[in-house]
Predict the structure.
Amino acid sequence: MTIGNQLETFAKEQPDKVAIYYQDKTISYDDFYAKVQQYKAALLKKTTTYEPQKIALLIGNEPAFLEVYFAVITLGWIAIPFDSKWSECEATRIMEMADPHMVVASSSFTKLANYHFPVTLFTEERSDAKVLEIENEAKDRAFYLGFTSGSTGNPKGFIRSHTSWLASFTAGEDAFHYGKNDIIMAPGPLCHSLSLFGATHALHIGASFYMTTSFSAREMIQLIQTEKATVVYAVPTMLSSLAKQKEVVESSVTFLSSGAKLYPSIKQALSNVFPNSSIYEYYGASELSYVTYTTREMSDKYPNSVGKPFPGVDILIRDENGAPLPPGEIGNIFIQSDFLFNGYVHDDTATKQVLTKYGATIGDLGFLNEEGLLTIIGRKNNMIISGGQNIYPEEVEKILKDVPNVKEAVIIGMEDEHWGQKVIALIEWKEKSPDNLKRLKAHCRKNVAIYKRPRKYYSVTGLPYTPTGKIARNKIIANLTGWIQ
């Protein structure tokens, strides 16, 4: 089986079922499959070979994105979604890295496409020519070239195979208990793998997908109330907005949170607004896919843990020499599963750093407890060495964000002649108060080891985030002087 190979079956067996909800429109499986076939025919007219082609998608959040995307991947080709928010410089660099055979563009990308890249096909161009269905059972074949969010550096291109996502689909259904009768919503841009994964999974299993052009807490509340969204993929910032709503929504809904830690206070507030909800958090990465997940019961018992492994995932903790470590000891996290990526584009060195003989690692550090639940301490590349002591920023940030009026906290290591690196904190407050800093320092004295405590605090606003909701740490470090003035 390959992704999308059931679309023809769905078009025959459930032709009138809604495949995509979009604004005030619905697209049935019969219509969706017909559009996919028309785009396949149009693409095939542009080439003389059935050999895998790389197709850049310069298309916004609209049905044409998924129609072209499924046309590409069911041909056995590779889809490369582009982000309309990229600067011309970023898009040019990524276009050179990806080196696509064709470019398919929509009106939202017209300026970028017309002036910088030769467009092979516009989304208005479809063909009614008959497409001969070919057997495409090469499950290990690549189908998707995506880009990391760049929270720790420049985005890298990564390759995914049909096999890796199909295995992830099965694991997700087992862990989260959803299926073809659900309406799945992933309100982020489809050019990002989190939202694209949700959409792809929904249409692959014959469920319905609710497509949005942007996130709106008010709109999502209404959709959940009217049962037009029963499963929601979201990042914590979205769920935080939902948790601030004043009305109680009795409808049943499953929230799947990833990208960053969903803090207990937000989770409790979300539960108050949606008393009949199931809330799952999961830890993963572009390179790893699903790794662990946590239920409300797990997070109540182990609030700092990211949960237990997904079905089919083995987690190993090893020291710097590769020796396995016992429960409770911090070390490098290695993952073994069928969900892993194929590698980075044009970067064998970086690929080998991730895909090692011990398993896959992205440099995260953590430990397993006696029950096999994983706790992440931080990322090796973010580690601060102050006075010879190792400090993991994420560990301190979690503690600072337990203070009710702290909206965001970022721990940075600033070069210092005496300490090597001096720990400083950038704090974004929910509300201004003359007692903010006093309360935060008191909290640190009680909960943070003295060598890990910030030596200076800076109140800031407008901290930058990556598209997946993580703090863009490298952007802050690159302009640190501007943040601490």
